[in-house]
Amino acid sequence: RSCVRCAVMGLGDYLSYSTARTVTLRDPCLGAVYYTFLLLIFLYIVVYNIVLNVGYLTFTTVSGSARVLTQQLTVKTDGVPCDPMLDTCDDVFPDVSQQAYCCPFGVATGGVNERLGNASAPWDQATSTCTWAAGTPYEGTVARPCEFRDGVGAETVYGESSFLTTAVHSTTQTYNQECSITQGAVTCPKLWNDKPLSAGYPDNYYYYVVGPETFYVLLQHSVTAGDVEASSQKLNNDTFKAGYVYVPADLGEGAQNELCNRQGGLQDPLEDSSKASGAPCYYAPIRYYAYDLINAADMLTAAGLSLDGSTSKTSTYRYDGLKLNLGVNYFNTWQSLAGGNPFISGRGTIQGKYQGLHYYYKFTEVKDSPVQIKQVYVADPFATTRTLISKHGILLQTIVSGSVGQFSALAILLQFTAGVALLATAGTAVNLLATWVMPNKAYYKRFMCQSTDMNAVMRCASLSDEELEQVLLERNLPRGGDRVQKIITLTADAYTPGSQESQQEQSSGTRPRPSDVERHLEVMMEQGSRTDGQPLVNPAASS
User: Fold this and answer.
1) How far is CA 245 from CA 69, 212, 241, 327, in A?
2) Which span out of 2-16, 127-141, 152-166 was modeled with the highest average pLDDT?
C-alpha cells in the first residue's frame, strides 16, 4: 500500500496543477495601473459599446422594393398641385425663351420657314446647333431646338428604375428597295438610309426637352426586416415616419447651402429644433397622397450636379445623360443613421425607445456613366420609313438599404463576456508588470508564484498533533491556527518529515541556508520594518 502511495505521489512531479492564489500587494503603483485598466474597461464596454454604440441591439438588414415615377409640374386654377390626368389640372412649363439651352424659333420670311434659329442665335446645319449671338442674354451659349414633353412622354420605367429624358436625337430613315428579297435582292449594301432634309426642317435632328428640372420624382417603397414590415403608403406617427432628403456638404459653389436654407433643412432629422445653417442637412420632401415628391433640380443639387454641368466628354449632362443611384435608407437608431450621415454620432435608440422606422433619400452619381436609350418607331411591318429615337437623360436606380435594431439579451451577454475577458487580460498584464518590471519584482514573484510539494504535505499530515507542536517549536515557527494551518506553516518552511535535510537540521540544530530574499526578509524583521513603512512583527515572538 505504501509503495502504491509513493508511486501516486511521485506522479505529482509530472501531473501538477496550477491555480490562482490571492495575494494583496500593497504597492500604490500597481494599484493605480490596475484600477486604471478597470476604468478603461468599464468605459469601453458599458459607455462606448453598450450605450453609445447600442451594443444591446442586434441589427437586421432590410430588404424591400421601390417604385419611381416622374411627372411634370402641374397646378390647379387655385394654385394647388394636382393630378395631370385631370382636365382641371394645368401643366406648368418654363418659358422657352428664357432657357439658354433652347434655340429661338424664327418666323416665315421670303417664303422660307426659318423654324430653327434666327438672328439672335443663327442655326448651324452641320452640327444641328445654334449659338447665341453677341449682345444676347446667353451670348456664346451653344443651344439646340427644344420640345415640350409631359411626364408620360419623357419618362420610361424599367422595373424599379426610371428614366427621365433630357435630350432626343430623332432620325427618319427610308427602306432601301435594293434590299428587297421579293424584288430579287441577294445582297444588301445598306438596309436603311437617312431621309433627305425637308424644306427648312430636318428629319434628322437633335432637340432638348423643355424644363426637365421642373419635373417631380414620385417615390413609393416598402420594406421588411425580421418581423418588422412597413410601407411608405401607410405613414403614421407610431410605426412608420415620414422621410427626408439628405444633402451632403457643399461642394464649393453654394448650391447645397442654398438648398438647405431654402428648404429649412435640419441637422438632425429627428429634432425639429436642430435647424441647419447650410449643408449638410436633411429636408422633408412634399407629401402627395401615398408618394414622396422631390423636385428634379433639388435632386440633382443634392447629388452635387447640374444638367448644364460639364461631363468628362466635354459636353453637358443635359446632352450626354447621367446615372444616379437613389438610396432609400431605413433606420430606427442613431447608429444606423450615422452610417449615411457622418456628422451625427451614435446616441442609442431614438428617445430611448422604439418609435418605428425612419428613412431618408440619398442621391449619388455613378461617375462617367452617360445614358442612352434607343427606340424604333414604324407604322406597320411593311412600312418603307421608320424613325429612330435616341434618348439621353437621367436614369434613377433605386437601392433600398439600411438596418433595423432590436433588443437582444444575447447581445448584452456577448458584451459582458468580452468585458470578463478584458478583466482577465488586465489582471495578467498587472501580474507580469509586478513580477518582471517593478523594482520589488523578486519579492512579488516569490509571494505570487509558489509551488506546494504535496509529498511534504502528506508526510506532515502523518504526524500527530504533539509532533507538529514539537517541530514548530524546534523551528521557531508560529504555532497558531488549526492542524491544517500548522501543516501549511511547516511545508512553507521547507520541512519534510523523514527527509535527509530535515534529519541533519534536527541533529545539528541548524536550518538550511536561506535564500537572498529570505535573508533580506529576516534582516527587515530584525529591524522591525516593512516595505510599506509599517512595523514588522516577529511571528515567533508573537507566538
Assistant:
1) 17, 20, 13, 10
2) 152-166
